[in-house]
Design a protein that fits this description.
By secondary structure, this protein is an all-alpha fold. It has helices spanning 3-7, 10-35, 41-65, 70-91, 96-120, 128-148, 157-182. It has one domain (3-182).
Length: 183
């Protein structure tokens, strides 16, 4: 994107959103570590909440972006996250392997979308962490699907996934701060 895009408020808006996403991911991960040894009402709520929060963040992102190139990818991400939330609500009644499979599929698809959106925004600045995070998400999603087939799979690995994603959002937010100052 051009410096004019930064002037329209995209970089500052993304920066705020990325800080919120970092905070949410860290808090969510802490709650998952504390509650996800089994599927219970609190952990089930957390697992459905995460993709729905991603959906809400994509809506905010799309509104901040205006009619730029990233918006179609954000709409795809919204649909994927909504389907993941519904899929997780259903999978929770089938057990941990089903949750890991749905989460893994969501991580793969949303990671690829994040990678593409990051690539379309690379001139904005601060997007390399998003590009890397998207690629890592796709790889992690594959590992969740494989983990579902192992004896005694655990949901606590999803906390690490969320934490790492949150760190990438934090790094991107910090880098966007520099881009906004130089615009």
């Amino acid at each position: 994107m051009s410096p004019a895009a930064v002037d329209r408020g995209i970089a500052p808006a993304l920066r705020r959103l990325y800080f919120v996403r970092f905070a949410f991911a860290v808090v969510w991960a802490g709650l998952v570590v504390a509650t996800a040894s089994t599927i219970n009402p609190l952990s089930a709520t957390l697992f459905v909440l995460y993709p729905l929060f991603d959906l809400a963040a994509a809506v905010v992102d799309a509104r901040s972006s205006g009619n730029g190139k990233p918006v179609p990818g954000l709409y795809v991400n919204m649909a994927i996250s909504l389907l993941a939330g519904v899929g997780l609500a259903i999978a929770l009644s089938s057990g941990i392997p089903a949750v890991l499979r749905v989460w893994g599929a969501w991580a793969i698809l949303s990671g690829l979308v994040q990678l593409v959106v990051g690539l379309t925004r690379y001139r904005l600045g601060g997007q390399w962490p998003m590009i890397i995070s998207g690629a890592i998400s796709a790889v992690a999603g594959t590992s969740f699907i494989l983990q579902a087939g192992q004896p005694s799979p655990t949901l606590s690995t999803l906390a690490g996934y969320a934490t790492l994603g949150g760190v990438f959002f934090l790094v991107s937010a910090l880098r966007l701060g520099r881009a906004a100052k130089t615009a």
